[in-house]
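Write out the bound-state structure for zinc ion.
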Amino acid sequence: MLDLLIKRATLIDGTVLDVGVRDKQIVALAKEIEEDAKETLVLDEDVFLSAGWIDDHVHCFEKMNLYYDYPDQIGVEKGVTTVIDAGTTGAENIHEFYELAQQSKTNVYALVNISKWGIVEQDELADLSKIKENLVRQALLELPDFIVGIKARMSKTVIGENGITPLELAKKIQADNQHLPLMVHIGSAPPELEEILAIMESGDVLTHCFNGKVNGILDQTTDKIKAFVWEAYRKGIVFDIGHGTDSFNFQVAEIALKEGMKATSISTDIYIKNRMNGPVYDMATTLEKLFVVGYSWAEILEKITVIPAKNFGLSHKGKIDVGYDADFTLFKLVDKEKELTDSNGNTRVTTQQIQPVKTIIGGNIYDN
Ligand SMILES: [Zn+2]
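---
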């Protein structure tokens, strides 16, 4: 007896399949499954099924005063089954976040900020005494199933006079702890992007990759991607969108694509303000922006499922396959124009929208 049988699920490549779920996992996958199920969901032809959407850069510890939100309001209610909070908390407040996060329907993971209280103030890396490797290590040991990596924000307002030093400390913490995933936020200099990329290694995640700042990937005098950025991209540094209030620019994304450079993963950097007032709103809107830039839906979906799962070691997530978690997003592609706005007020009009209709987490179905 299955817990859930999904009939006639259309994947983005056009394949139509039945999917069987038991004990929160995918247990069967076939053209036609005849087994009995406690619950059966028969999908309409215009509904697509993908692995559950993963947003690898959000802020959802509701007790923070600056960057906060509620996991289910950015997760399950928006078609997102799994969120990774990107360093809102540090070693000294991540336990409180963990306790709260367990109450949400959405799967919540976290990157621990190398600064011990996370983003309580904007300048969490301006005082190096807040970076305590032993505290980070202890948090990693205490919450091994919650913390999936570390976060360092490397931009002017965050680091004060400390230059590249916080990133060097982050790399040391990473090296001392099984080379866990590291996400680095970029913005205005100092430090210079070139210094940051010189220290980052293959597999490290650069978030806010298509920001429109002078210290971004685009040389604004020639309108070409900087040579050292191409080098970093080719060496395997992960380029993550991290849209945010301030960090996604259409022109940068378009020029990169024209030169043959695509974001590796897509994420929102959502929190309550940019969710309610824009320009982020939700994951679907962020995806529409990459679609209008020229990415196909199939590659967009990879960048919010299999790729972030791999980058952050979520080995049971990101794929529709036997043995994987029963997390799915059901959505429609609707031919309807919509004006989209980036972080710098530039607009584009998409001719197609992506609209989540149901979110399934651990086999439980939620309507959108
Ligand atoms: Zn962020």
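---
Residues 57, 59, 86, 244, 269 surround zinc ion (CB under 6 Å).
Residues 85 and 110 are 5 Å apart (CA to CA).
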